[in-house]
Structure formats: structure tokens, C-alpha cells
Design brief:
Blueprint (H helix, E strand, L loop, with lengths): L5 H11 L3 E6 L4 E4 L1 H7 L12 H4 L6 H13 L3 E10 L2 E14 L2 E11 L1 H7 L1 H7 L9 H18 L3 E9 L1 H8 L1 H18 L4 E7 L2 E7 L4 H15 L2 E3 L2 E3 L2 E8 L6 H22 L1
Helix pairs in contact: 5-6, 8-9, 9-10
Length: 289
């Protein structure tokens, strides 16, 4: 009879469990995770998280509840089950439920092990009208109403913990001409294509909104000032990459303006400043053509 090692058994279990499984050390730093966890966050390797905390990864607009729960597990030996939370995944804020318990070695707590399941679709089914009202029907990303709800959470985090964030305002240049030349339905295909590009080019902890028409807004909590320009350059490159849509080659140009909350005193002033800078960029581009 073949002998199966505990390590092999553990590895097989991890692939079988229909949830994102992870384990951390006493300082809440990731030690490992299963493939489902990596796939959920769009990570190519577990090395991208090892040694990092949730705060380092920037997955939560407000990481405090997650931190407090994990400290209870590690310091008090508590097991926490089915706790609701939110995380940022591929441009969207998703709802999850997580369970965590102490990780023991030789009778001592050396960290924690946990798992989570995404319950966004389940909650949307229960309250489909509310979900529908926050989702852009064409692109599937958040709409302007969702923006109004979610930016309040970013503002609260700034006021409580001085977590600065940046707002990018993106406007497609000459999009009306695309609609006029190819028709409205083709224009919709272009908007879908642009949305995919923006989601792909955004940082992992960016949240993306279709603000209206051919305008998009991206929110991103800052961990490093250098990120601001890097993300903007990535977004422009992604926007302007040649596209082949229904056999026609299309090149889209976009103007981007950004503003940090710390430069302003309110959400209204923040979007006004980003909008102003976006139009300055648009004017510069027109002057050069």
C-alpha cells in the first residue's frame, strides 16, 4: 500500500478546496496560498505575496477590520468564522466571507491559516436591483452611482489614517468621430475593448468606474508617490495600443488628468482638479496636432 506523506496530502487538499486558502506568520505576513487564491487576485506566483501583509498588497480600502481580526486570532487564539469583508479585485470591489484560525506548531501559535469565498454574486442575486444600479450595463464595471458610494470610503480612510489616494479622470479623444464613422454599436465594442485595457493596465488595487459616455474614473490608494506617474503612463500606453475590432484597425487616444486627495479638501474639489488637468492635457494634444 502506497504511503502518502502529510505534505502531499496537504497539497492535494489545497487544490480540492473551492476557496482561496492562505497562511501567515505571527506578523501577518503571507507564507503561502493555494492556486485558487492566486487566480482570484490575478497573481502569477506565490512569490508575489510571500513576506507581505494585506496592507502591503493594498487589497482593502479599509484594512483595519482585517488586521484587528487577525491580531485576535494570533494573540488570543480565537477562531473567526464567516466574517464579511470587501477587497479590490481586477478593478472592482468584491464582497467576501473569510474564516481564520490559529496555526500551531509544538503547541504554540506561530501564525494563522484561513480561507475566503467570494459572495458578490450571491449578494447581488438577493438584492439585484441595488447591484444593477451600481453596474454599468455595457462594460460590466462600476458606474457613476457606485463611484459616489465608494469614494466616500476612500475619503474616510484619508481622514482616519491619512491614507492618501489619487483620482484619475480619463476621457477618450475623438470618440464621437468613431461613432459617426462606424456607428453606435461599433462604438460600444470600442468602449468594451478600452475598458478591458484599463482594467489590465491598472494597479492591482485600483477601482475603475465608467463615469459617463467615454469618460472613466480610477481610484487608487497610494503606497508610493512614484506610483502616480507610473500608473498614468501605463494607462496611456494601454489606451493607445492599436486595436483590431471586427476586422477594422482602430487607434484610440485618451487624455488623463489626476489629482491626489491631499491636494484638496473635498471629493468635489478632487474631481474638479483632475478634470481641469485632463482638459489641460487634451488642449496640449490639440495644439500639437
Amino acid at each position: 500500500m502506497a504511503k502518502i506523506s502529510n505534505a502531499d496530502l496537504f497539497d492535494n487538499l489545497l487544490t480540492l478546496i473551492p476557496a482561496g486558502v492562505f497562511w501567515k506568520d505571527k506578523d501577518r505576513r503571507f507564507l503561502g496560498a493555494n492556486q485558487m487564491f492566486l487566480d482570484y487576485y490575478g497573481l502569477s506566483s506565490v512569490n508575489e505575496i510571500i513576506g507581505k501583509t494585506d496592507e502591503d498588497m493594498g487589497w482593502h480600502i479599509d484594512p483595519t477590520p482585517f488586521k484587528n481580526i487577525e491580531l485576535k486570532v494570533i494573540n488570543n487564539g480565537e477562531t473567526i468564522s464567516n466574517v464579511p469583508g470587501q477587497c479590490i479585485v481586477k478593478g472592482m470591489v468584491r464582497n467576501i466571507r473569510a474564516s481564520k484560525k490559529p496555526l500551531y506548531s509544538d503547541g504554540k501559535i506561530v501564525g494563522l491559516i484561513g480561507y475566503f469565498m467570494d459572495v458578490t454574486d450571491e449578494l447581488a442575486e438577493k438584492d439585484w436591483l441595488a447591484s444593477l444600479s451600481r453596474t454599468d450595463e455595457l462594460t460590466g464595471i462600476f458606474n457613476r452611482r457606485a463611484y459616489s458610494d465608494i469614494i466616500v470610503q476612500y475619503e474616510e480612510q484619508y481622514k482616519q489614517n491619512h491614507t492618501d489616494f489619487v483620482l484619475y479622470m480619463i476621457d477618450l479623444d475623438g470618440f464621437k468621430a468613431v461613432n459617426d464613422e462606424y456607428g453606435h454599436e461599433y462604438g460600444n465594442l470600442v468602449l468594451k475593448s478600452v475598458t478591458k485595457s484599463l482594467v489590465f493596465a491598472s494597479a492591482d488595487n485600483c477601482v475603475l468606474f465608467r463615469y459617463g459616455g467615454d469618460e472613466f474614473v480610477i481610484l487608487h490608494q497610494l503606497q508610493d508617490e512614484k506610483e502616480v506617474q507610473l500608473i498614468e503612463k501605463r494607462l496611456i500606453r494601454a489606451l493607445e495600443a492599436p486595436r483590431n475590432i471586427e476586422g477594422a484597425k482602430v487607434t484610440i487616444h485618451g487624455s488623463i488628468g489626476h489629482a491626489q486627495y491631499s491636494e484638496t479638501t473635498s471629493v468635489t474639489l478632487l474631481i474638479e482638479l483632475a478634470d481641469k488637468r485632463m482638459y489641460e492635457m487634451k488642449k496640449l494634444r490639440k495644439d500639437h496636432h
